[in-house]
Amino acid sequence: MSACPCGSGRDYADCCQLYIEGKENAPTAEAVMRARYSSFAIKDYDYLENTLTPESKQDYDPAHVKSWAESSEWLGLEIVSTDKGQAEDSTGDVEFIATFKQSGATHKHHELSHFEKRDGQWFYTDGDIVRPQPIVKEKKVGRNEPCPCGSGKKYKKCCGRG
After folding, report:
1. Where are the domains of the chain?
2. Does domain 12-131 have CATH number 3.10.450.50?
3. Hey, how many other C-beta atoms are within 10 angstroms of the C-beta on 55?
């Protein structure tokens, strides 16, 4: 047996294959996200289209998706967070980072995907690219300045002791 490309740690046959082949509906938004990633990795694109809402299919270009996916080597999926999207929910969000190699360069696709559950089945509606956050340098506190902890003492007499 082979490991599932989605990174769940389970065998493909006991994980995403069940959803991709239509044997079961994915029980959560995260499970759909994982199976969609696996669809790219195994180059089986029907599941991608089948898990789009009818409204989302208007923007779907199967030839473009296939071209992009086949020119890429899929290296891994990281689920950053989920919000709702459980079996009892009707909507859910999954933030993920998909790592892939294309033309010799490694890329990370970081997205917040939105899902809806309709008639017992989860569908991808759309997603927002998550941009890198700027690095914020903390201002260095001088010894005689007020302590940033809010104590009212000078930094050197409070948190600056060392």
Report:
1. 12-131, 135-162
2. yes
3. 11
End-to-end CA distance of the chain: 56
25-84 confidence digits (pLDDT tens): 999 999 999 999 999 999 999 999 999 999 999 989 999 999 999 999 999 999 999 999
Nearest to 27 by CA among 158, 131, 145, 115: 115
Q: Quick count: other Cβ atoms within 10 Å of Cβ 29?
A: 27
String of DSSP letters for 90-140? SEEEEEEEEEEEETTEEEEEEEEEEEEEETTEEEEEEEEEPPPPPP-PPPP
Amino acid at the residue 77: L
Is the Cβ–Cβ distance between 144 and 153 less than 8 Å? no
pTM here is 0.81
pLDDT in tens, 101-116: 999 999 999 999 999 9
Strand ranges of the sheet holding 105-118, from the earlier edge strand across to the other edge = 72-84, 91-102, 105-118, 121-129
